[in-house]
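pinned: reference chain
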Amino acid sequence: MRTVRVVMLRTFGALLGSLSTAIAVAVFLGVSGGLFARALLGGEGGLTPVAVLWALGAAPTLPVLAAVLTMRLVADDRASGRADLLFSAPVRPRDVVLGKFLGAWLHAALALAVYLALPLAVLPACAPALAEHLTCDLFLPAYAALLMQAALWCACGIFASACCRSAAVAAVISLVLTLVLPAALYQSAFIWGRVFRVHFTELPFTAHLVDLSTGLLQLSTLFLYLALAVCALFAASKALALLQFGGRGWLGVRFSTACAVFLAFAFTACAFIFVDRFSISAELPMRGGYSASDRTRQILAETSGEPVHVTCFLSQRAPAYRVVRRLLRGLETTARGVAGVQLEVANVDPRWDLGAAGRLVKAGVPEGSLVFRQGRRKVTVPVDDLFAGVTNDTLAVTTEGLFEAENACATAVQRLSVAGRRGTLYWTTGHGESSAASYDAIYGMSDMAREFRQNGYRIKTIDLAQTATVPEDCAVLVIAGAREPFSRTETQRVEGYLRGGGRLLVLTASSPNAGVGSLLSDWGVRQLPCTAVSPSSTFNGADVLVTDLGDHAVTRPLAGCTLLFEGAAVLQPTVAAETNAVVAAQSAAVDRTEFMALARTDAKSWGESEPAVRPWAFDPTTEPKGPLVLAAALERGGGVAKDLAFRPTRIVVVGDATFALNGALARRANANRDFLLNAVAWLAGLDAFSDSRMPGNVVATGMDRSRWIRFGVLAAGGPAACVLLLGLLAAFRRRRRS
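pinned: its structure tokens
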């Protein structure tokens, strides 16, 4: 062990004082920092933890750093003859290999520790909203996962260096072993192996990094990295030991060494297959790892009666099993914390629990489903429906998929206690409206339609040009982003529906004359010919984030949440409408319209009359100054509805046609879908309004464009410049001494 320690310290000291190594570490920090900033920008509003984004930023460049650190460690000794001189002493090759490996690994660990300064020091300075959430303990699993991968890459680099006399060739071989070969094998297996394609939708090294960073420890993963690193070091020691032999028996020794290395890798593969069959895993109780949304807590707290039994009929080999298991454990813990209904979770693996699986199949439950049962009532949710709208990769299923899965499970629990349908939503067509049946990832509204159906609404389409009257079973008439104006006949039919106590939801287009714009001005709200913009927008400059929500039944449960508008029109009450304060001071009448602002921008915003012309500039003579109303609720006859058998007319207008499109809802850092669900519930006359379903662990940096640019520059250049400066100082000092 003394030899190992001496070689390790000498190797670490040589790497620490090398200018070329400092340059390599600086490049690693710069590229990794840039990748982290890019990943954080893409993960804004998502559920991927910052620790995972940080780890994924370093994963592509870590094999390159390991190759640079290890390429000279043995190759230079072989080329210069120092290896022959070293082995003339009683030194074992394995001690030399292990010492050099530990020295390189410690240097990689030091580089990763410097890289850790980005989320712990640089990011909190640029994003104060995340400062209290970014603590060292949250990044320890991700740091340990990168250390584990760095150990494997350094071991492969030592093996490549032990087989070559040229450092450049050793670096190329190391990169082939750590980057090219795994990607080629994965792509080949993914193309030709159907079973592999089902179980591994992402490169296993990336999936392992995500799992370990989120606190999921699997015995098979730990064994894989440890065994492969030991095999690589064993092969390196054997390659180095060949230098001690020559002459007549050299070919025999070389052949036996190759056989020993091959048998070592074969034994490792067999042992890994054996360990992997047991599927032994553990989950670390990480702070911030899972946080149920307010809506889920509300549903669990309001559900009473017998315990809800949840059966997970899913194979442990399924890609979604890990996230489903984490979700059910989190829901079980949340249910105990809110003192609501008791959840009892059971797992049925069709491969092992044959009796329970047979009973579920006889009951008509397909494999790959969650069964929620309370008393005699039962709701079956296919696992595929849990992740509807989520891209099919391991990272999404592990993080973003948790959002969709939690909402589906909470809705299933709610359906056990709330029976029956809530009404029918009629979607107008024929004027360029967004379709509820469109699954387009950006411009469709299938996600919102699925939310309405899960909450008990029916959805039908209606063409007012062909239908004389709005059907009597219409709970809410929806006009979603009509680009063409309604005809006079269609407008009169909508007018008649509203005068009979109808309920209308309008998502306005950019033109004030599109849709039923002329009708809305008669009912108390008009659309100004300008677009809301704000200097404190998101990075692309076209979005407006709204946190000022009015005191109304629609927005009251969403206090503290954020709405996202893009190219939103500015709304303004007309003379016919009165605000809440005026209505409270006067006697209410049937023809009195109450106007309530649901969403206002901040004071820095304004209504840009020419949004296509950049840069934007505020003109106080022609453009309105913020705060601006972007969503409003109208009610006529609400004051007499309590005393008389009168159905008041209700209208909700949102000045953004893209407010509830699939593209807007995919950006998780907003409560757009919750706002729309509550708006429809208020329009339909329901009393149950849901809290925000936005999870508590959503990534919301709160940085505008200037802060994003500053963070990107610091992430890519800050730590790299410091390391490079220290390397130059060390080289200059060493040169002066010599």
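why pinned: Residues 294-414 form a domain with the Glutaredoxin fold (CATH 3.40.30.10). Confidence is low (pLDDT under 50) at residues 391-397, 578-590, 641-645.
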